[in-house]
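ok so i was messing around last nite and threw this chain in just to see what happens. nothing serious, just curious
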Amino acid sequence: MAYRRIPIRQSLNQANLIMGCERSLFIVSSVFAALLIFVGMTKLTMVVGTVFWVATLFILRKMAKADPRMSQVYLKHVSQQDYYPARSRSHRR
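result:
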């Protein structure tokens, strides 16, 4: 009996990226840059906001090329404990 082959569609397995960056980090950095630009309303804050956005975009693209889910992996790593004692069951003390 031959095994049935089921193709894995690429569209279901791709990371959720915007402009080559992780979606949530891109949105946060864009909103922060827009706040800098539109709230400050001076030439200095416009330049600082634009430079911040371009630099953040560059860094986030490099991060996404290394691992498209790097921030999620890091947050999971930080939430883990340093030591898990050996126990036979979770409800025992």
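not much to say yet. The chain has a mean pLDDT of 90.
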